[in-house]
Amino acid sequence: MKRIILTGGxxxxxxTPNIALLPRLKELNYDIHYIGSYNGIEKELIEQxxxxxxxxxxxxxxxxxxxxxxxxxxxxxxxLGEAKKLVKILHPDVIFSKGGFVSVPVVxxxxxxxxxxxxxxxxxxxxxxxxxxxxxxxxxxxxxPETIEHLPAGKAVLTxxxxxxxxxxxxxxxxxxxLHFTQDKPVIMVVGGSLGxxxxxxxxxxxxPELLQSFxxxxxxxxxxxxESLKDLEGYAQFEYIKDELKDLFALTDLVISRxxxxxxxxxLALHKPNLLIPLSANASRGDQILNARSFERQGYSVxxxxxxxxxxxxxxxxxxxxxxxxxxxxxxKNSPQQNSIDTIIDLIESVARH
Length: 355
Fold this sequence. Notes:
Rossmann fold, elongated, 6-stranded parallel β-sheet, 13 strands, alpha/beta, 39% helix, 16% strand
């Protein structure tokens, strides 16, 4: 039996692609272990699958001044020692890393024990954690054609992001019943990210009177972002977060308005959902969502509006135009070369694994 260590954490986006690989890895009879931080989001997400979980110390490597810059290097050094010990004990045949700072000690520990490692980079340009890990990788998977030029020659493979297969098996009639929607109007799903985007939420709510004349709207608005004054509005359903019913909501949805996190937009691509992307502003991030969104726009998968462009008329026109041209977007997504991410990544894992 081959043994694989999966690693990645800090945000759900560094964990869900690993989760998407689990069924195929189990089919192939891999003994699967996960290394993450002691109490990060990855611990909660992974343990529900019954995968052995190993926590290590972790710290963030920042490019800006912070008091934690004086203490985190010691956490990283401790984490590297713990990772080396785990890799020695577990003796894996291969490591698959989804990134985040907890993955760096694991990848470096793998290199010290000559374990082949595959890294997955979600965003257009690699983050600092993956930049540190790249020299130790056998192969580097990526989501965007433009990313290949930022990666070491001979290591880069355009794979797309592994998508949880259950998202492809939704039942729109269950969603109609769950939402109390009718079948005579198309449905827009608004996804503001796990924390909820105030900019996206406010922009959509400002055009509700006009949108509800032609559409029904399911709004995933984030924790604490429910607008009580809109609770009884017909054709409008809002939730902080949806888990089990998400696949059914996707099956019902005609258009999606979303942030542009890499994993979220790769799910939209896999589901062939015409989408309007409103990326996180460069003022609030390193600008990776803007780059992600513009790549999808160039490839013909998405319409993009930046936060600074958002206003009542611009948003309404973008939604109307997208709906009118939805079949063009659907067809382009169906023709995408990034449709078999799980197969491509599993083939890479099999090709580099020891034994």
